Amino acid sequence: MSAKPQFKYYLQSKKYLIDEKTDIWSLPIPLSIKKPQKAEGISVTYGEYFYAVRSFLEKNKFKSITSAISQHLNQNIKPEEIQKIHIYSEKHGEFYHPARIEIYINGSGILFVLNAAISSTGKGFIKREFEILNKLNNEFSFSFIPKVYSQGETCIKNKNIEISMFLGEWFEGFNEFHISQNKYKQDKKDSNIKIVIWDHEKGNFFLSADETLELYSEVAMILTCYYNAETFEQIFPWHHAAGDFVIKLQKNNMETKLITVRQYAPMFENKNEIAKNNTDSDIYLMLEAKLVFFLNLSIRNRLDRLDGVGEIVWSDDIAVEGTIKGFLKGLAKISSNNLIPDTLAFDFMNYISCFTKTDLLELCNCIVNTYNPMAPELSVIKQNLKNHVDLLYDGLAKKSELITAQTGGF
Asked: Helix, strand, coil: what percent of the chain each, to 5?
């Protein structure tokens, strides 16, 4: 094998190149939100973190990274073709410490993500997430979640600390977003809060009302696409506050991706939980479960933390319209992929039209009562729930009228 590739280490962007000579190299990375320097008595420096990532990539003669590149390019790549590897420490969360990996071959860079978990809780999550992402990518034809390539462990020398990692697809050009205070209102109609995009390259910017509507629609559509109407399996939990969704705006075209899937499981342990005293067919159970999924989605889609780290905030009403639009769009997509009967989306609209506003509010309250009573968002939800259901009911009624007046689907 020829000379090994050159490694360089950065803090998020190329502006912050670091190495053994820089002060930050020996400083500890944040391992816990509550106790930033340590978690479970563990301390890991930036230098140790970067070398652990490098060790994972170098393992077995760069097997994991050459395999990932070969799949990405659809051609066989050998280790000696790798010229440079740049490792960017992106962020440090409660459980994961993702790094962006830039591999140079023939002068061109190819990006991947390497998720790392140091805490015992994080290690449990990361192994499960690798399996879930593999499962969903194999079972669904959609490409809204990252592909994954390899997983494994590496140790920090002299500390006996094991780090679990997996290599996955990096969504290039996508950025995190959050609700933020609108300090530059153009007119009285402008909202007090807006969605801000964290664009580290071009600078942060606010979304327009139309773009915000489309964003909430895309989120609802993605989650609906991965909902299994027969088993009631869903992607949950997910959080806007955690930056689970990212978007890319290019020439008035919006793309949205879900970058993490912590769990994929049924909403209910068994179908009898939602059957109540009704003995109707499975189609009834599927519709009732879908209603619970939709109502929960409509509530969760409105929650965030101000600027990603502040207090719990409730979105503008436009999120309701976006959620309805995206949910129906998702139903149409899974129908066209033969994942559910073609008529089920129409059946759902007929089914939900039988519910009164009071019925929907009662059901939403039942859903909220299943949340963790210590969850910080609970008071915000309860304060806004009645108005939320009013908007939801009116929005569904309008959509139902529109569908009835049209033919050929949504």
From this structure: 40, 25, 35
Question: Residue 156 — φ and ψ, nearest 5°?
Answer: -85, 125
One domain for residues 118 and 42: yes
231 CB-contact burial (10 Å; exposed 0-12 / middle 13-18 / buried 19+): middle
pTM attached to this predicted model: 0.90
CB 330 within 8 A of CB 223: yes
Q: Is residue 384 part of a domain?
A: yes
Last residue of some domain: 169, 191, 212?
A: 169
Domains contained in the chain, number? 2
CA 55 to chain centre: 28
Shared domain check, 395 and 323: yes
Q: Are residues 126 and 236 in the same domain?
A: no
- Residue 188: which domain range? 175-405
Q: Are residues 50 and 186 in the same domain?
A: no
The verdict on 182 and 295 lying in the same domain is: yes
DSSP 104-145: EETTEEEEEEEEEE-SHHHHHHHHHHHHHHHHHHHH----SS
Task: Pick the last residue of a domain from 108, 137, 169.
Answer: 169
Instruction: Say whether both 73 and 135 belong to one domain.
Output: yes
**pLDDT tens for the 410 residues of the chain, in order:** 456 899 999 998 878 999 999 999 999 998 865 555 555 678 899 999 999 999 999 999 999 999 999 999 999 999 999 999 999 999 888 889 999 999 999 889 999 999 999 999 999 999 999 999 999 999 999 999 999 999 999 999 778 899 999 999 999 999 999 999 976 555 555 678 899 999 988 899 999 999 999 999 999 999 999 999 888 999 999 999 999 999 999 888 999 999 999 999 998 766 555 444 444 567 788 889 999 999 999 999 999 999 999 999 999 999 999 999 999 999 988 876 665 555 667 788 889 999 999 999 999 999 999 999 999 999 999 999 999 999 999 999 988 877 666 645 44
3-state secondary structure of 172: coil
61 with 188, same domain: the answer is: no
Chain-centroid distance, C-alpha 278: 36
Q: Do 13 and 111 belong to one domain?
A: yes
